[in-house]
Amino acid sequence: MNIAFIGLGNMGAPMAINLLKAGHDVTVFDLVEEAIQALEAEGASRAGSAEAAASGAEVVISMLPAGAHVQSLYLGRDGAPGLLDALDGRPLLIDSSTIAPDDARLVAAAAAERGFTYLDAPVSGGVGGAKAGTLTFIVGGDPAGFEQGRPLLEAMGKNIFHAGESGAGQVAKICNNMLLGILMSGTAEALALGVKNGMDPAVLSEIMKQSSGGNWALNVYNPWPGVMEGSAASRDYQGGFLTDLMAKDLGLAWELALGSKSSVPMGSQARNLFALHSAQGSGQLDFSSIQALYRQGEDK
Ligand code: NAD
């Protein structure tokens, strides 16, 4: 298929590479020139704008930081038209960014008015899952559009869920990431407590992994440096899933809670921890660096 891929960051780049490996023609665009060059080296075609990438595409996939970026891509900004008004063809539109469900519904409704199908298809599984092609896709939107997009999602992921109508993919993803934020900070807290009481972090991790505290952070994303080869923690928390993006997702959970009069005390606590961590200068580090917040004053 002829695919346009917009947004080649930590997640988008490996996802686009998996589409190339599956034999698709992929035309890419990002605001960062180096990101485009890296994909060109893998066999992608370059475009000078999102509109140029999407021209003639059968499917457009976007993987951008936040809702504002997604709205500006599809709906336009400052008088400049977005993709919905710039495209001649009728490609299927799939946005895999994690954004507010209301933002996804807004774009989906604007797309439907102009005859496009837009799916919200956020992902779970991290950069490791994106590279391995084992992501979980959580999709909201038209069931026929979901079936049309499924083969492409299967080239990038292992578990493909249809969560419900437009926005449902984002609701499920935000619930998942709120739980992830709680689990990661809880894991970091338990490890710091153990180490301060004489435990080896690797030994403690293995014990908790095989016990009732076992969770995804311990299994594949250990936050303590050196415990897990290849983890973000073992490369100075570079790359991966940024603290600022986790803080954004916990903010989205908070907004969802406000709108539905839900109580999320654990999610609120996690949001405050990641916001504090970001304010201390760690926003551009992987979110597992929350471990450092618990290690302040360690040498004193
Ligand atoms: P990232 O910041 O690494 O990449 C975002 C990319 O989008 C950057 O390369 C940026 O230059 C590009 N971009 C921004 N605005 C653009 C525009 N208007 N046109 C073209 N390109 C533009 O972010 P990421 O880690 O790849 O995450 C992307 C989304 O996926 C976020 O919503 C995040 O919450 C979600 N997510 C991330 C992970 C993870 O582990 N990193 C996991 C699951 C979901």
TrEMBL record:
Q: Does the keyword Nucleotidyltransferase apply?
A: no
Q: Which residues form the 3-hydroxyisobutyrate dehydrogenase-like NAD-binding domain?
A: 167-292
The record's EC number reads 1.1.1.31
Keywords for this entry? Branched-chain amino acid catabolism, NAD, Oxidoreductase
Pfam families to which the protein is assigned, alphabetical:
NAD_binding_11 (PF14833), NAD_binding_2 (PF03446)
Q: Which NCBIfam families match?
A: HIBADH
Q: What is this protein called?
A: 3-hydroxyisobutyrate dehydrogenase
> In which organism is this protein found?
Halomonas urmiana
